[in-house]
Amino acid sequence: MSHPIIMDSLLKFFFITVILLLSAAVREIQGDAMVTGTVFCDQCKDGQRSFFDYPLDGAKVVVACGGNDGQVTMWKEETTNMMGSYAMRFNGSPDLRGCYAQVSGTNSAAGCGASAGPPKNLKLMFEIFDMAFYTVDALISQPAQPMPFCPNRTSNPTTNPIPTPTPTPNPTLPVPGPPPPTVRLPPLPPAPFLEASACPTQNWLMQEYRCYWKVVSPETKVAVAFGLIAAKSYGTDMTLQEGLLGRGDLYRTLLREGTTALLNSYNSMQFPYPTLGVIEHMNMALLGSSSQVLLTALRFKRANSGFGKVGCKFTPCN
């Protein structure tokens, strides 16, 4: 039988060792603040996101913080990637809850940089140790004029009204003139993304459907598509195509169905999860328990199957 004094001493030694190890681990974590968000091109200039808008590559975003005297106390700028996403790191874990983000410029070739939307405040998602993660609601940048296919697009009213002919005392039959020119409106561009479509993983892996990879490519890194939290779980070298091949492991299953849902969200505006929703649910699952990982993976899988009501609208690429 073990002596009570010896057992008590061993337990105290164990707890002190654990506390020292945890303290050392915490000290090794660098205190940083991370800000992430997305910029969209507001093609219809309606001031909000719609299914005509798309993620804007090459947009410059500035995060600024103001002091009590109205002067800017902190300022940083970053450029969006091809998915319209940006991420900024602030050393020292400063409190950014009073700061805002705004589009400060765009790539001149994008054709969507005539004006920027309103600034948006930073929102604190969570804090862990000395690290803080902030998100920003979607920012917008606008072209000089709304696109021709936008609904409720206003045109300049006619300033010269048609004159009323003056009757003559001896009216004669008018001489027929040339017919007025026919005004033909430009046809609406094809918009397959307006149709409901949900395609399972195996369809996205087939070579004949490779043309449906539009916003991202099979070689796009998982860390780029899903952000910092996914990078910690899957590394910085794994591609989306490798993510689609995940089998067996719970977290690889989540990545497979999450990547499929991300591709479906880019392909169809009627997919149950919007693009930002896929990324948010993916990251929240990675921060949660194993049961939350499984539940999120199953929900993505059901959405990717169309809930048995919506099929995959793929046709072989030319």
Task: Explain briefly what this protein structure is.
The protein is α+β, with helices and mostly antiparallel strands and 318 residues long.
Q: What composes the largest sheet?
A: 10 strands, mixed
Q: What is the helix tally?
A: 8
The ordered H/E elements are HEEEEEEEEEEHHHHHHH
Count of separate structural domains: 2
The portion of residues assigned to helices is 25-40%
* End-to-end CA span: 80 Å
Structural class call reads alpha+beta
* Low-pLDDT windows of residues: 17-29, 154-176, 180-191
User: What average pLDDT do the residues reach?
Assistant: 77
User: How would you describe the shape?
Assistant: globular
Percent of residues in β-strands: 15-25%
Explain the overall architecture.
- There is one protein chain.
- By secondary structure, the protein is α+β, with helices and mostly antiparallel strands.
- It folds into two domains: 32-142, Immunoglobulin-like, CATH 2.60.40; 194-308, no CATH class.
- The protein has helices at residues 4-28, 201-205, 222-226, 228-234, 240-244, 250-267, 275-287, 290-304; strands spanning 32-41, 54-55, 60-66, 72-79, 85-91, 100-105, 115-116, 120-128, 131-136, 139-142.
- The longest helix is centred in the N-terminal third of the chain and has 25 residues, at 4-28.
